[in-house]
Amino acid sequence: MATIKEIAQLAGVSAATVSRVINNDPTLSVGEETRIRIFAAAEELGYKPSRLRKLKREERISKQRIGLLMWSSLEDEREDPYFASIRRGIELRCEELGLQIAKVLRGRDGAELAPIHDLAGLIVVGSVHAEDVSTIYARPDRTVFVNHGQSPGGSDSVSLHFEGAMRDSLSHLFELGHRRIAYIGGDETIHRLQAGYPEEGADDPRRQLFRAMMREKGLYLPELDIRSGWSPSGGYEGMRRLLARRERPTAVIMGSDPMAVGALRALQESGMEVPKDMAVIGFDDIEISAYLNPPLTTVRVHTELMGRTAVQLLLERIEGREAAMHVQVNTRLIVRESSGLKRGGNG
Q1: Last residue of a domain, one of 35, 62, 89
Q2: 124 and 269 both lie in a single domain
Q3: What is the pTM of this model?
Q4: HSE (CB half, 13 Å, CA atoms) of 11?
Q5: Shared domain check, 253 and 236
Q6: Tens digit of pLDDT for each residue in 183-242?
């Protein structure tokens, strides 16, 4: 097998430079022509071909520039960490791979987004209309949608396994003897980037699954299916509407943890005890959930993993995968005091 010294002689550089290039030393500043010459000499002399293939792949990846389109604003991320955690997962995986996030766009800011032509791929976080995305980046095969409300056709996507989340939540409540169960959640919106086009509404998958599963049991009651905003104030108002009913539910599933925060406040103001008078389950498992009074039973969503998965899918597309993939990330029910009796899997 060839030595570092032999590669250096053939490439016309020092042995130290060859060693640092082959070992991917990030502190080394060397021209692209020199790198190519060193790799060519190493291949010619048969120096560790598997290692060289890995290095050349890392070299190719480090030259790729991708974009990130977030529908949420920075203020949205501060109020609800769900999308901030997805973005963090994207950034961490890009850092590990050496991928460059060259552009970060914010759809909700209202600014006209110019077409992008110089990116190897685009990750879209949030429900943005696929046709609008194609007007700014015309490569659906290099576009990955994360947490999108609809199937984005020929693009890759990453979503949550909502069916498992709702089934776990309802099963837990059924085991505790609840039958009169309510749902409070918002609506899904497919946002538009193009001015003059109306946004499209869609039923939240949590609500669809709640209805279907409760109907399977013959327990669905339309009056306990409450639409409200996704914020704490939305949860507060939704719970107030439930409490105004003569026949109240004994348990409620909230569409998000921020909504659950508002719902707990409304219950406390009305003198209702949780979970004695009403059991509450949230969705997201944001950090504050474990510190509420009482601590919130909720569905843990692996948002950072969703972001990391999106990067991996995009890289596979950049490297030549042709078929679109749609990945669902599983959830986990974290049982705490707000739903009543505990069972395994507490967090």
Answers
A1: 62
A2: no
A3: 0.76
A4: 29
A5: yes
A6: 999 988 777 776 666 566 677 889 999 999 999 999 999 999 999 988 899 999 999 999
